[in-house]
Amino acid sequence: MTREELLKDIKDRFKDDIIDFIDTSPTRVYIEIKPESLVKAATYIFKDLEARFNIASGVDTPSNIEILYHFSIEYLNVLISLRVKLDKKKPAVASLTPVFKGANWIEREMHELLGIDFIGHPDLSRLLLADEWPEGVYPLRKDYKEWDKKAIRDRGV
Amino acid sequence: MAKSVIPIGPYHPLQEEPEFFTLTVDGETVVDIDIQIGYNHRGIEKLSERKTFDQSTFVIERICGICSTNHPFAYTRAVEDIIQVEVPERAKYIRTIIAEGERIHSHLLWLGLAGHFLGYNTVYMWVWKLREEILDVMEILSGNRNSYAMFKPGGVRRDINAEDIPLVIKKIDSIIPTLTRLKKAIIDDPVLHARLKGIGILTKQEAIDYCALGPTSRASGVARDVRKDAPYGAYDRVEWDMIVTENGDVFDKVVVRILEMYESIKIVKTCLQNLPDGEIDLNIKDIPPGEGIGAAEAPRGETFHYVRSDGTNRPARHKVRAPTFMNLPTCKTTVIGETVSDATIILAGVDPCYCCTERMAVRSIKGKKLYNGQDLIRLSQEKTETIKKKMGIK
Questions:
Q1: Which residues on chain B are in Cβ contact (under 8 Å) with A123?
Q2: Whole-angstrom Cα distance, residue A70 to residue B353?
Q3: The CATH number of the domain where B268 resides is what?
Q4: B344: part of which helix (H) or strand (E)?
Q5: Does residue B111 sit within a domain?
Q6: Shortest Cα distance from B228 to chain A (angstroms)?
Q7: pLDDT digits over B297-310, tens only?
Q8: pTM score > 0.90 for this model?
Q9: Which domain, by its residues, includes A14?
Q10: Staple partner for A66: which of A59, A122, B4, B44, CB 3.0–4.6 Å?
Q11: Are strands A52-60 and A92-94 parallel, antiparallel or unpaired?
């Protein structure tokens, strides 16, 4: 399979689910997909195309909470990033942990740092933040405010 | 028989980093493990959003003290991916030399520690003496024994002097005989065979399922290496082999790391001998809005950075994924079913690096919370109480 055949295959297979398809460079492809189709698309890319799941990046943008799921297809040297845009008020999306175990920790991380709910995740307990960190305070949100008055943190340059 | 719980950590008796393993044992056999990290959370991803693109390079170099160079490597590649530029040839070679030198010293460090964990302190002393030679080489090349500060978006900060190259090659050649003796001593040692063979097996299917990286996955027969699959730097310009073994036990992880050092020596030497002339920096001024991804094969596996720019001089989002973040969860399958005495080396077998995983920095001494020994004992007792309560143990 060549790169063109692969991209055409994905486009045809998920033509009703894809919102946007950006082909930036020979090794990078960004595909925006409907949140409800995420599991279907990720399963196909991971299991059938034998991609490796690199990681997911959660981003707080002015209009949405975005998650990018990065998959490497090594035999073609292509990195596919599946993008889902979630509602800022109550971000929630289906969990990928039942599909492959590699998604477990990163979903826990995004859950506590960005406040995204992963439906179907077996254990969303706290992974990184300290025990005394208050519930509902998400440090990677852009509207994050310092809650610990005594803390000495970086003030920027 | 009643099951017992063995807490290891948060101040790990062997590995000098904070992590907390709760081993549930039935007699000698481990039946369950719970891994807790987060004792070292420094919030570098947030910190990076407040630094300029150039300053971030220094911050993320301090994510990890051992694989310090591969974080800037992946980050600068991500920034260059936003602008869609290729760095000059000479910069590519210099980057490769620094990254491979780091791999040799990191693998030697792990090998020494692995010997130490097994109670084999001769290996520990011997290997760390050898590591000094590599640190000297890195000092000659970059001026620093660690945290080399050689990378910047668009190239490298300092050039390699032509007159240093013969000395560096001589020094690198001088470690090969010792390394070969060491390889023979470790690979043929019956005691190490007894301790490591067939212990903590990670099957190929599990390695894929957990998305394991680097030597951890290559020891399980997964032939994946960013340097081969998506060549960057000068890796596609030199001859070298990817080391893959099939068994997935701790012994194979040792073998992969030892053999990888020979490949790294080969790469460093070839790059130094064929160092092209020319510019070392593109002098990038502005970063346009956009998003970029950079990956680099660190000693422990792929380091992955995602950077988004909104057109200002600071990253709007900077996501860092260190290899241990994907490798550590594999302990869930490899430790269960083994004995307690083997758990130590299996947990160390992935070459864990917690400060990478949590992406954090040393807390300022001026911080209001300064604990003395008594406080720490009290805290650990309180923690034990809460855990006991949570698990329903009196």
A1: none
A2: 22
A3: 1.10.645.10
A4: helix B340-349
A5: yes
A6: 9
A7: 999 999 999 999 99
A8: no
A9: 3-95
A10: A59
A11: unpaired
